[in-house]
Amino acid sequence: MSAEAPLLAVENLRTEFYTDKETVRAVDDVNFRIERGETLGIVGESGSGKSVTARSIMGLVESPGNVLPESSIRLDGEELTEKSESEYRGIRGSEVTMVFQDPLTSLNPVYTVGNQLKETLRLHRDLDGQTLTDTAIGLLEDVGIPDAARRISEYPHEFSGGMQQRAVIALALACDPELLICDEPTTALDVTIQAQILELLAEIQVERDIGIMFITHDMGVIAEVADRVAVMYAGEIVESAPVRSLYSDPAHPYTNGLLDSIPGNQPGGRELTTIEGEVPIPNGAATHCRFAPRCPKAFEECYELAPEPLPTTAGKDDHTAACLLFPEDMKREDAVDEHRAANTEGTDE
Ligand SMILES: Nc1ncnc2c1ncn2[C@@H]1O[C@H](COP(=O)(O)OP(=O)(O)OP(=O)(O)O)[C@@H](O)[C@H]1O
Ligand code: NI
Questions:
Q1: Are the CB atoms for 219 and 246 separated by under 8 Å?
Q2: CA angle, corner 35, sides to 7 and 173, nearest 5?
Q3: pLDDT of res. 268
Q4: Which residues form the ABC transporter domain (predicted)?
Q5: Residue of 308 and 262 predicted with greater confidence
Q6: pLDDT tens figures, 183-234
Q7: pLDDT of res. 265
Q8: CB 184 within 8 A of CB 217
Q9: How sure is the predictor about 266, in pLDDT bands with cuts at 50, 70 and 90?
Q10: Closest to 291 (Cα-Cα) out of 254, 328, 249
Q11: How far apart are alpha carbons 43 and 61 in whole angstroms?
């Protein structure tokens, strides 16, 4: 649609799950954008809402889950939340595709890799005959599978884990997507293979100018792939910044905790730390900072007021933190007042 529209704009995204005992606000008012050619890294511990965010964009939230009506997900300016299930099916696997941690969730064990690729190409590119086969081989070559002409007639189980994930990426590319969502695509792979896959994704992005949303719990991986980073905690984005600022000037105490838990990141032989405690299940409106009970810097107001994403220093709009300690160039009580004011302006009840 409009050339000005970002590739993906997610606004006020709220996704809830209804269980017998509670309503889980798995994604609770999340806002972000992804431009063409940009990789947004989404990082956070288990249970922070990363995968549910991805599933919400993909239209894959199933009962007892629900994307709340005030949520907006625009792809190329087009509102996705209003799409019917059949329209969504058309969008998935054409404009947006997803790569999961386990390649075997995307590969069918009873068909050869080549047949799966060809089927996808037939659907999306209207190719047939030798052109179809050649295009399929070309795609396998593009994702770095050696001896592609022979391997195309092999079954998924004949591929190693790394090669399977490459085949999944080839399948995703066969759809010619504008947005690729990767949910922990390298977590199951060993470090060398992981690095190769990350490099492959970077190459693909440059060649095709697609947007990538890359989900991981690993801060080290984020540093390799992301242009921007959104740090998620208990359903909320608690910090968002260009990757360089995030590492040079991490703001949120939660981000600092994640950085301290990267092996090898401890100056002076400090012990590898992990953040004590667990991510709480967000089962009510945010009336306070959800990280406060685990936060080494929490003070009284943190238990009384939900922080809003505000610039970490005045005017630095591309680096925000939802923490009452920021903007850091303000006196603490003034910063708290800023959050209180932002809070009443927002849609939060
Ligand atoms: N089908 C479901 N029913 C109920 N609750 C769910 C469902 N799916 C997800 N949740 C809840 O939503 C929250 C966010 O889960 P999500 O899978 O997005 O976390 P994540 O950040 O991707 O974690 P991980 O790193 O473990 O993949 C969790 O509290 C989870 O229990
Ligand atoms: Ni997940």
A1: no
A2: 70
A3: 58
A4: 8-259
A5: 308
A6: 999 988 999 999 999 999 999 998 999 999 999 999 989 999 999 999 999 9
A7: 64
A8: yes
A9: low
A10: 254
A11: 20
pLDDT bucket at 114, cuts 50 / 70 / 90 = very high
> What's phi and psi for 197, nearest 5 deg?
-65, -40
Question: Across the chain, what does the average pLDDT equal?
Answer: 92
Element (H, E) at 134: helix 129-142
- CA distances (Å), origin 144, targets 19, 21, 93, 179, 318: 44, 48, 22, 21, 35
157 CA to centre of ligand 2 in angstroms: 25
- Cα–Cα distance list, 76 to 29, 87, 211 (Å): 21, 15, 11
Q: What is the pLDDT of residues 141-192, one digit of tens each?
A: 999 999 999 999 999 999 999 999 999 999 999 999 999 999 999 988 999 9
Residue where the block lists tokens 């409009």: 2
pTM above threshold 0.90: yes
If one residue of 18, 45, 46, 52 were mutated to test the ligand 1 pocket, choosing by the most ligand atoms within 8 A of its CB, it would be 52
Starting at the earlier edge strand, list the strands of the sheet with 96-99. 96-99, 179-183, 211-216, 39-43, 228-233, 236-242, 320-321, 310-311
> Kind of pairing, strands 78-79 and 96-99?
unpaired
ipTM: 0.99
Site residues for ligand 1, CB cut-off 6 Å: 17, 19, 24, 26, 44, 46-52, 65, 217, 281
Distance CA 325, CA 334 (A): 10
Tell me which H or E stretch contains 133: helix 129-142
CB 26 within 8 A of CB 17: yes
* Nearest to 320, CA basis, from 229, 204, 199: 229
* Domain locations along the chain: 105-176
Q: What pLDDT, on a 0 to 100 scale, did the predictor assign at position 249?
A: 96
Which atom of ligand 1 is least distant from the CA of 45? 25
- The count of other CB atoms within 10 Å of the CB of residue 223 is 16
Nearest CA to ligand 1 atom 6: 17
